[in-house]
């Protein structure tokens, strides 16, 4: 994330989206942490700063709440950002890099400027630093005493940078331009002698000597009147130099006249960082080439850099798009020089300091290189900034790829250009995403909003719609198709064939996929890699993370070309067959050492796999569709994509004409995943129809694993035991480990902690031998829950934290939800309710994102437990009632006993003895039906509280003793979280007896 203090307090995501910090105290907390520049701040100091003597009732708790809210706001904007607000023995600190704050970037740029000897480079660095300021430092905290020193320090640094840049520009002879800029500053800071000296030098050098002398007299009188002092030695020496008319005060640089750059009629949006990058590159290298796809804004960026460039002899712009030849005469014409002596160009330009901008070089690359190479060697003061869809490939060339706009900047550009006609943020976001952030495409689309509206534009968006650009634009830029045509015509036949064939891929593809699908018709497999590299160089193809991707407008254009060539359907079949084979291969590789790599690969190929399934369905390829979903089913379950799994498998099953074996396998997967999602199902028929023993055993295990998690425990245990026999007969170690993990999970749910540990440890040993991280993750809960129940919270935390780490590494967000909720329970047990709420809320949010209702309700129960303990009974009851309804729908028993007990405790705390007694009785019934001794003890303890409220203390004591005996007999000690109620009931009993 990025933070701003050079102006009003501001926060942005990495994509540049502003983050709203909603409440004044939270903003003040963030400001306090930012001005410490990474140093820790004690809690006492933060409390004093935030409340300034008007302390809340519980200051430490109030501060913790604000810290928690700040973490939540940051994390909602950028997952993982909550960890930026750290805590240690010395207090709270913001753990960010210095340049993540605009104040830090400002300091770095000023420091670099101070070490730079070239005045032009120094002036540019200082200009970049000062451009970071958005107004007075921390302008929204000017009344806060704790911010005052930081504001003073930042404003002093800003003034010093202004003075430094003014002196640097005086070295460059920019006296006239400085007079107007420094006049206001000098008036606002009459006692800053360095500022006054720069102003006097600017006046004198601009030919206004009399005004300079009069201004000196005003400064001298002001110093005497307000400070009782004379001007310092530097200012006095400058006055003496002016009196003797020292020639050194007169600028010697004479700038040559040059044709003006074309004035821009619109603002440049979202390219601030790129402008800085290009300027920095020009300081390091004398040849910089901006590459990128057509319409991405290379020319606009180059003109923005050129407009602010300060070479002594100016800037030359040569526009090459309409030229069919490039030679030295083109440069001379651009400069306005007629050299009748026909001297070589490098002699004409020698001794000058120039920036030569060559726009649209791609169709004249050889000719441009032939001219520019010798020029750079012969003219030391020359710099060249070129725009092209591929590099010039000259020595010393710095290539900067101009990328499409980030989503936030794309939306801003589209909205600005469309004007007041924008009335649907979701439609705008869709348009910007489909147009790939290409500025030209966004501007062409925005021009159609007035006539169509954004929703109609979104529905009709396409290449042919994006026409009728500005009449004063070049013909090649009036439609998006024309922009792409320009690049297409520069390609060879093989390059066109491969580029068009890539259009069938969705979301890009790997090199292997391109070789398998794009070869043929004169293109050999071994040729594809080189062709892809050339297409990347020519900005028709984007490469990153080992994948090749077409921007959507180019993909649409290529699909049309593919259709015109009669290859579209053939290529879609080839694409379908390749990704079907990939899905089948993945299904066999997702267990063991390569698990993480294959999860990552399937995530990257998700769009291609969906496209392959859509094609198989649309063309009646039933077995192909079933192979696709059967190959991905285990991946979908592992990663918590239950909704996608159910929809995709159902879609594949709807295609008629499939083979019985593939259909039976898909039906079994569908039934098991449906059970996980809370649907009743009867998978036995499908399991019996699966012919392959190994496949049948794994599906039987999967169904049993699903059943023990949501209610049908008896059936689930039966399937697991039968699967275990089959796995052991086949010597299938993975299957054996998976069953043991499921049985350990079931034992932990029933409070049979000895069996949970025994099976869990054996499963963990086998999974470790196999290198299966998912399997190790499955043992974290059955090993951690017994430790939690026995009060060994450090051990439980170790198991759950290990599970959380593995789940995050694998990207298994449903499991991340579960482990977060488990750690939330530990936080509740160890007396950290704030941390418990944070962990449970994270778990709930992730479960909702993954459409995993079971995990969502588990997290909500945790939120309810914390709410009841802090006395928020209405909120707690809502959580428990919702959970009870959910358990009723899926037929759950064990968790139902817990929820009934918790509702009973809510009724007790309200003093409603009758309701409490009924609820605890139902809880006891559910616990006994499930054979859960721990839940049974909890229900007995609840009944004791209800009996006490009903005036039966003797019965309450008897029930408590019975519960204690049951816990001792079954090795289910009373956890701290449940002690909350036992202690409350016991204290009430003591008070009852004390009063007779």
Automatic annotation (TrEMBL):
Origin superkingdom: Bacteria
Show the InterPro entries listed in the entry. Answer: BTAD, HTH_77, OmpR/PhoB-type_DNA-bd, P-loop_NTPase, Sig_transdc_resp-reg_C-effctor, TPR-like_helical_dom_sf, WH-like_DNA-bd_sf
- MF terms (GO), sorted A to Z: DNA binding
Q: A GO BP term, please? A: phosphorelay signal transduction system
Q: Where is the OmpR/PhoB-type domain?
A: 1-96
Arranged from A to Z, the UniProt key words for this protein are: DNA-binding
Q: Does the keyword DNA-binding apply?
A: yes
Residues of the DNA-binding region: 1-96
Family note = Belongs to the AfsR/DnrI/RedD regulatory family.
Matching PANTHER family, A to Z?
HTH-TYPE TRANSCRIPTIONAL REGULATOR RV0890C-RELATED, REGULATOR-RELATED
Name used for this protein in its record: AfsR/SARP family transcriptional regulator
Species per Swiss-Prot/TrEMBL record: Nonomuraea turkmeniaca
Organism phylogeny: Bacteria, Bacillati, Actinomycetota, Actinomycetes, Streptosporangiales
């Amino acid at each position: 994330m990025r933070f701003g203090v050079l102006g009003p307090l501001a926060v942005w995501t990495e994509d540049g989206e502003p983050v709203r910090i909603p409440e004044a105290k939270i903003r003040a907390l963030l400001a306090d942490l930012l001005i410490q520049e990474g140093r820790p701040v004690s809690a006492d100091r933060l409390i004093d700063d935030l409340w300034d003597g008007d302390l809340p009732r519980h200051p430490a708790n109030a501060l913790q709440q604000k810290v928690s809210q700040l973490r939540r706001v940051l994390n909602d904007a950028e997952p993982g950002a909550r960890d930026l607000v750290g805590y240690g023995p010395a207090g709270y600190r913001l753990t960010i890099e210095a340049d993540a704050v605009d104040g830090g970037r400002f300091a770095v740029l000023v420091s670099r400027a101070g070490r730079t000897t070239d005045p032009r480079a120094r002036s540019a660095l200082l200009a970049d630093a000062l451009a970071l300021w958005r107004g007075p430092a921390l302008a929204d905290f000017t009344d806060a005493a704790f911010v005052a020193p930081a504001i003073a320090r930042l404003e002093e640094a800003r003034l010093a940078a202004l003075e430094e840049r003014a002196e640097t520009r005086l070295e460059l002879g920019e006296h006239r331009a400085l007079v107007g800029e420094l006049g206001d500053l000098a008036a606002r800071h009459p006692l800053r002698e360095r500022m006054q000296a720069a102003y006097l030098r600017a006046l004198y050098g601009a030919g206004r000597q009399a005004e300079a002398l009069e201004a000196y007299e005003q400064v001298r009188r002001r110093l005497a009147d307000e400070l009782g002092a004379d001007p310092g030695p530097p200012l006095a020496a400058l006055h003496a130099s002016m009196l003797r008319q020292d020639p050194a005060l007169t600028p010697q640089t004479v700038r040559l006249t040059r044709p003006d750059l074309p004035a821009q009629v619109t603002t440049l949006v979202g390219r601030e960082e790129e402008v800085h990058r290009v300027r920095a590159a020009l300081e390091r290298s004398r040849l910089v080439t901006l590459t990128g796809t057509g319409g991405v804004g290379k020319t606009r960026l180059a003109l923005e850099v050129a407009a602010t460039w300060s070479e002594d002899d100016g800037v030359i712009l040569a526009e090459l798009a309409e030229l069919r030849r490039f030679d030295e005469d083109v440069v001379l014409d651009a400069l306005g020089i007629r050299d009748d002596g026909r001297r070589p160009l490098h002699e004409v330009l020698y001794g000058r300091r120039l920036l030569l901008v060559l726009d649209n070089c791609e169709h004249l690359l050889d000719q441009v290189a032939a001219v520019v190479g010798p020029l750079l060697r012969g003219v030391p003061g020359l710099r060249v900034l070129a725009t092209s869809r591929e590099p010039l490939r000259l020595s010393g060339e710095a290539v900067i790829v101009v990328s499409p706009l980030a989503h936030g900047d794309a939306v801003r550009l589209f909205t600005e250009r469309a004007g007041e006609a924008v009335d649907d943020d979701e439609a705008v976001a869709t348009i910007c995403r489909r147009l790939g952030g290409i500025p030209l495409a966004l501007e062409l689309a925005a021009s159609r909003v007035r006539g169509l509206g954004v929703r109609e534009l979104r529905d009709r968006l396409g290449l042919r719609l994006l026409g009728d650009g500005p009449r004063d634009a070049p013909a090649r830029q009036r439609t998006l198709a024309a922009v792409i045509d320009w690049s297409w015509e520069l390609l060879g036949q093989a390059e066109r064939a491969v580029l068009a064939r890539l259009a069938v891929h969705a979301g890009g593809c790997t090199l292997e996929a391109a070789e398998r699908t794009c070869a043929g018709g004169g293109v050999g497999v071994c040729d594809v890699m080189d062709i892809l590299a050339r297409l990347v160089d020519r900005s028709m193809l984007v490469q990153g993370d080992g994948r090749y991707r077409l921007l959507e407008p180019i993909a649409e254009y290529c699909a049309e070309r593919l259709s015109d060539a009669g290859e579209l359907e053939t290529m879609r079949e080839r694409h379908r067959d390749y990704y079907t084979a990939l899905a089948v291969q993945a299904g066999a590789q997702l267990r063991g050492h390569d698990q993480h790599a294959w999860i990552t690969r399937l995530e990257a190929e998700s769009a291609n796999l969906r496209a392959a399934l859509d094609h198989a369905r649309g063309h009646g390829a039933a077995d192909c569709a079933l192979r696709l979903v059967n190959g991905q089913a285990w991946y979908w379950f592992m990663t918590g994509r239950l909704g996608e799994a159910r929809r995709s498998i159902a879609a594949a099953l709807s295609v008629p004409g499939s083979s019985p074996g593939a259909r039976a396998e898909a039906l079994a997967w569908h039934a098991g995943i449906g059970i996980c999602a809370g649907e009743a199902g009867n998978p036995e028929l499908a399991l019996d129809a699966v012919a392959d023993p190994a496949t049948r055993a794994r599906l039987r295990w999967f169904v049993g694993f699903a059943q023990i998690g949501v209610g049908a425990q008896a059936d689930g245990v039966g399937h697991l035991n039968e699967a275990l026999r089959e796995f052991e007969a086949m010597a299938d170690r993975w299957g054996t480990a998976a069953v043991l993990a499921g049985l350990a999970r079931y034992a932990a749910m029933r409070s049979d902690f000895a069996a949970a540990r025994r099976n869990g440890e054996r499963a963990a040993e086998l999974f470790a031998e196999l290198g299966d991280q998912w399997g190790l993750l499955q043992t974290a809960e059955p090993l951690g829950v017994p430790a939690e129940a026995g009060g060994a919270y450090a051990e439980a935390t170790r198991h759950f934290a290990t599970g959380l780490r593995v789940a995050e590494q694998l990207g298994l967000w449903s499991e991340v939800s579960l482990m977060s909720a488990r750690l939330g329970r530990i936080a509740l047990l160890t007396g950290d309710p704030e941390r418990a709420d944070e962990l449970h809320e994270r778990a709930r949010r992730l479960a909702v994102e993954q459409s995993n209702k079971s995990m969502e309700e588990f997290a909500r129960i945790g939120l309810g437990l914390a709410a009841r303990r802090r006395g928020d009974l209405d909120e707690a009851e809502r959580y428990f009632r919702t959970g009870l309804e959910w358990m009723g729908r899926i037929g759950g028993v064990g968790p139902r006993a817990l929820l009934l007990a918790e509702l009973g405790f809510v009724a007790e705390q309200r003093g409603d003895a009758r309701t409490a007694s009924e609820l605890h009785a139902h809880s006891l019934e559910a616990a006994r039906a499930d054979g859960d001794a721990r839940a049974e003890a909890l229900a007995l303890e609840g009944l004791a509280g209800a009996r006490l409220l009903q005036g039966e203390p003797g019965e309450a004591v008897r029930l408590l003793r019975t519960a204690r005996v049951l816990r001792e007999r079954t090795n289910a000690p009373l956890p701290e979280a449940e002690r909350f109620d036992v202690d409350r009931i016991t204290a009430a009993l003591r008070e009852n007896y004390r009063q007779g």
